Amino acid sequence: MIKTLRRIDRKLSEEDAWAVLRDSEYGFLTTINDDGTPHCVPMSYALYDGALYFHCARAGQKLDNLRRDDRAQFTCVLHSRTVPLQFTVEFASCMADGTVHIVEDEGERQTAIRAICQKYDPEGLDTPACDRALQGMPATVILRMEITALCGKANRGRLPG
Q1: Distance CA 22, CA 147 (A)
Q2: How far apart are CA 115 and CA 44, in angstroms?
Q3: 36: left (phi over 0), alpha (psi -120 to 50) or beta
Q4: Of the candidates 67, 51, 48, 47, which has an alpha carbon nearest to the alpha carbon of residue 59?
């Protein structure tokens, strides 16, 4: 559960928090091991229709954890830059709490895969290379994270620029 920020001056507006989540290149999905410890893995993802979509292999610790406990947290950083001689870092980050489920519906799977492809290679969509890549997707698990809480934070309380 996301708690109130101690540095409220760094809290992003809800709109900016969603922008960080949408625009970050990758993030870290944290699930809960059976002994209660966190299991954190870097993930490519896409934000589509208010949910996060991920793809992964059909087996592994992350899936074992999610099958036992669907709660998770996703954290991403849009940018980070050390400011020389000021002993600070400019950044914009976001944390999302939610539940993660395996997508079984083939239509939703295709929509999610397309959203991920659109994010990472928009010029490559609808090309023979994309078609070849999509042929391997039946062997891939698609996950959907329903976001229940979102909190963004940035140095100076807003997105830079």
Answers
A1: 13
A2: 11
A3: left
A4: 67
Pairing state between β 46-48 and 38-43: unpaired
The tens digit of pLDDT for each residue in 121-151 reads: 888 878 887 777 777 677 889 999 999 999 9
What Rg value do the Cα atoms of the chain yield, rounded?
A: 17
- The one-letter amino acid code at 56 reads C
pTM for this entry? 0.87
Measured in degrees and rounded to the nearest 5, phi and psi for residue 142 equal: -110, 130
Please provide the distance, in angstroms rounded to a whole number, between the alpha carbons at the two ends of the chain: 30
Residue pair 92/137 in contact by the 8 Å Cβ criterion: no
Q: What is the pLDDT of residues 27-81, one digit of tens each?
A: 999 999 999 999 999 999 999 999 999 999 999 999 999 999 999 999 999 976 6
CA distances from 75 to 30, 58, 128, 148 (A): 8, 23, 33, 14
- The SS3 call for residue 26 is coil
Q: How far is CA 35 from CA 19, 31, 32, 100, 129, in A?
A: 34, 11, 8, 19, 42
Instruction: Select from 47, 56, 57 the least CA-distant residue to 96.
Output: 47
